[in-house]
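Reply to dn_fold:

You asked what the input looked like. This is it:
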Amino acid sequence: MKTVDCKIDMNAAVPFNNQVDFCIGTGRMGLALQRQYYEQLKLVQEKIGFKYIRGHGLFYEDLSIYNEYTDENGETHAEYNFTYLDVVMDMYKELGLKPFLEIGFMPKKLASSGEEVGFWWKANVTPPKSYERWCELVTATIRHLADRYGFDEVKTWYFEVWNEPNLGGFWKDADLGKYCELYKHTVSAIKAVSPDLRVGGPAICGVDDERWMNGFLTYTSENNIPLDFITRHHYTIHAPETVGHYQYPDMIDRESADITVKNTRKIVDSFEKYRGFDIHLTEFNTSYSPITPLHDTNMNAAYLAGMLAELGDIHASYSYWTFGDVFEEHGVPFTPFHGGFGLVANGCIPKPTFHTFTFFKNLTGRCIHRSKELIVTEDNGKLHGVAWNSIINDEPLEDIKISASFSLPDGEYCMITKTVDEVVYNPRKLWHDIGEPANPTPEQNELLRSAAYPLVKSQRIMAKDGKIDIELNLTPNAVVYFEVFEAPIKSDRGFEYNRINRTVRSK
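and this is what came back:
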């Protein structure tokens, strides 16, 4: 067993930019018209409560925004239909979410080519055949949203141009020059509504990313193109092995994985104009594939805890990809535990990583300790902490015992722990044990949801001589949340807790 001893300075102020609830990802926006999508997002909002949501497919055909018709003179005209867009945006508003609006993909009728498509649902990834019509579409859409929700509200949103244009599957030929042209026209169309609207890019992932980031920032700075923030994506696996419907990758160790995003910060800061600019990580996860069983595991949850403790060091925000498994980039999932990106499996079953986020959401107040296995905050005399035991690939399976000492006034305290590990929180194992049903019955889904609650324990502890010592024992890939707070006993007249306990034990 590995042991970690921590003597924590209650007066410390450790840097910790906790943006765990800033933004969450989703599949294409049209999926929001499905009932199960709404149920999963509602659960996520009730238990975590994100501020923004970002997804693909604003201009994809299932929302039917862009349309064309030919008049009696044979002239083609554009017309817009915002019916379904309003349904989606109204639902987001109902659940307390603002859009981090990705501008894309290309409507088929406006595309310069119909052959370049991405994803199972065939998103068109080509430039427009007419930038004039593209700009009119973008401007009309944002004006409609401003009319519906108020300009003061829309000013609080973010607008991001396209998705991963450095990949040929998402932007024709991964052409940097043509992306810069798209960005120039799109930002102009958005700023035509108001210069106060926030626009950014280039939303790249980790392929040829240094050339892309340098090239994009050189273009915008030299040509005085508006840029209000910078975006990129971050995944932490090696190329996976594909077996049937699934992909199995090895993880990249945390220090090596961090090099990519740290290099982006260096590139951005090398431009005097952009030094210190906000970088938003508009997608991050372990695997970049939605058919990776790793996503459903405690390994994923523990690894992500380490990421959440550090991502805020160089990012204004970081958006987990995604909130739920109503998602179709590789087609409709065959089973509930198919390795989707989501915090929630289909059937509304929270995965282990779901609670990594609920735990970090509770880290309020001032950070007083942060290490490779533990983070602690203090908020009006109450301690909050998260500990994790991340073990990846073929590393030895080893328990961790964390001992922490806090300076607190003498008195009676309560310590609450919530544990997520492979023994006490493993709906995936339960699904396996009942035969891996591809389509669980309502009764089976209820059973699976019942296995998706952390183990909650409590104990009373005394502070003596101005000190409290606590101990946390973590099995491999466990994540544990704890609270410590003053709790003097204030018994009702005649209530004797231990007397009842003695009676029970005597039987």
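The radius of gyration is 25 Å.
Hope that clears it up.
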